[in-house]
């Protein structure tokens, strides 16, 4: 019996060694998920005139938008906690330019602002964000619905795009041909399938009674197996941004965290778990510190520590929390 146990352990360690060598050959790439890089700290705002006062007010207005994007909080621009930062908006400007239509394009020192946010315990959301595919039909009772396309210039789409820009979430709209096929329920026009093919992480489906900014609008947001509904022109975008920020934004300084993930059966699953952990913007380093036949121990550097990581994983749902391991280390199980 002892020989059989030894043989089993030896076989297990051989398999682990092969797995380890394969992992080492793959290296530690960043996330393979459909993330889009967002210009968090470049903001365009109106400039009423060329006076110093107007320019200073524009710098502050632009910084308010940058703070909303950087923290994930829709109220960051009005929060008194950011008053010291907003009062010195000009100090954080790296460069700016005025456009022909009286807009001021401002680029802030993102690294300096991120340091301020971290030092003052504010949440920080990285610049790689989930993309959202929007499928918005417009029509009233008795009239055929149309699907808004990427080239639409209506009040409704303009308002939605502006809010997405303010919140810092990338939207993907259907092409004109796809929108036309969708309006007639042509084969292959399923919005979920189209969004997936385009690499979108989420699907935002809506119906409006008119193509104007004041339309009555109902949204359904589908993200990682969860679905939620909202009413209002901007609510779909705002709730999507709030959901993403709840998963990916975290506060605090970088701290080491060890976790164990059980149920990893092959290299493909390992790569998926490693990329998943790396996809959180508050995780800066993902390494492997130990490996066994029934799991992998990851060593991470995270902002917000284990609490932020557990919160994000619970919201996301790709890993399930299980009983702690040796020395109380947090453990998770690969989902089905």
CATH class of the largest domain: Alpha Beta
Which ranges are low-confidence, i.e. pLDDT below 50, for 5 or more consecutive residues? 1-33
Distance between the ends = 34 Å
Q: How many structural domains can be distinguished in the coordinates?
A: 3
Outline the structure in words.
- The chain has 336 residues and is of the alpha+beta class.
- The chain folds into three domains: 10-34 and 252-334, no CATH class; 41-119, no CATH class; 128-247, 3-Layer(aba) Sandwich (Rossmann fold).
- It has helices at residues 2-26, 52-71, 83-86, 110-119, 155-167, 176-183, 191-197, 235-248, 267-279, 305-316, and strands at residues 35-37, 42-46, 93-98, 103-108, 128-130, 132-138, 146-147, 171-172, 202-208, 217-223, 226-231, 254-262, 283-292, 295-303, 319-322, 330-334.
- Strands 6, 7, 8, 9, 10 and 11 form a six-stranded mixed sheet that branches. A five-stranded mixed sheet has the order 13-14-12-16-15. A three-stranded antiparallel sheet has the order 2-4-3, with helices on one face.
- A hairpin with a 7-residue loop joins strand 15 (319-322) and strand 16.
- The protein is flat, with a radius of gyration of 24 Å.
Question: What would you say about this model in short?
Answer:
The chain is an alpha+beta fold and 336 residues long. It has ten helices and 16 strands.
Topology record:
Layout: H1 2-26, E1 35-37, E2 42-46, H2 52-71, H3 83-86, E3 93-98, E4 103-108, H4 110-119, E5 128-130, E6 132-138, E7 146-147, H5 155-167, E8 171-172, H6 176-183, H7 191-197, E9 202-208, E10 217-223, E11 226-231, H8 235-248, E12 254-262, H9 267-279, E13 283-292, E14 295-303, H10 305-316, E15 319-322, E16 330-334
Parallel strand pairs: 6-8, 6-9, 12-16
Antiparallel strand pairs: 1-5, 2-4, 3-4, 6-7, 9-10, 10-11, 12-14, 13-14, 15-16
